[in-house]
Structure prediction request, 378 residues.
Amino acid sequence: MKRNMFHHKYIWQSRHWPNLVWNADQVEQQLGRTRFCQGKLLSKIDAVGVALSQEARADVLTEEAVKTSAIEGEQIDRQSVRSSVARHLGLSTVGLPSPDRQTDGLVEVLLDATVHFARPLTVQRLKGWHAALFPTGYSGLHRIRAGDFRGPEPIRVVSGPVGHETIHFEAPPSKKVKGEIRSFLAWWQKSLRSVEGFIRAGIAHFHFVTIHPFEDGNGRIARALTDMALAQDEKLEKRFYSLSMQIMAERKDYYDVLEKTQRGDGDITNWLLWFLRCAERSIKNSEVLISKILSKAEFWRRHVETPISERQRKVVNRLLDTGPCGFEGGLTTRKYVSMTGASRATAYREIANLVQHGMLCPREGRGRSVSYDLVFVD
Prediction:
């Protein structure tokens, strides 16, 4: 009877919760590798320069917003995100659409978490983030408690068809949420000076999604908290690697390790190892992004005095953003018309002008089948 008294299905039901433990030797070995990659990246960023860093920051923030939504199965328009990011960072918004309220709210949350990383984390701030994520008070077609903790209905993570669902996780009952959040916020403040930064970020992520205090958006807020913890560790408001982008690429593994750890007894070694490895891969992949930004900057340095219109500049930037391979099938007159709204005659004339300036070169093909690629700097 005594052994069954403490039997639990989920970690938050354990008598040890929320005291989490891990194998220090295993975790520190991986931590060293992650820190090494982080140091290399930050050194590379220092060499890039302030103006270019803003461009790199915009690209990373755009990826972060798009991918953190995609992890939850929500697709948002990349160009709308880029417009919101550019507006907040003071970059050009020429040719970009006006962002919708929900997209703008997500970008504001991500920026608030990192730019204002030194500000206290409070219940009001968390609720404000949640309200910003759901400005209409709806998640899809469902009315939710935007800007407030969830109601009495049980919160479960499920998969499978209706009537045959698999329950992967059930969150603590709503009556426990306020106490759980108070405990989390107290740990957040205390751990700032006592827990290694990357480990603290991993714990914060796991702890928050396990509490699951809101009806929706918990994953997005947990990832914002992760970025905030890393900003506090690095003392940098700019993020140059996107954990959400990497988590999206490894989404199945992410949910698998979360589920297994949330069903455990408080040992989060496997979660922390996965989190640190994911961060390492994220940092390594960001070097590809930074290289693309450098290539883009070099392209415009080469053509700084080339006389082209804003419409032509918009198309060239779209090609630059896709990288050396450009659009699938190359740039065509039809694609130019679609992007700019210009007439076919104007599109043909402006493409020919870009070829004349050495910015585009034709692929093989004749007549209507002709397409173009950017001429990148070697």
In short: Residues 1-6 have pLDDT under 50 and may be disordered. The longest strand covers residues 166-170. The first helix runs from residue 2 to 5.
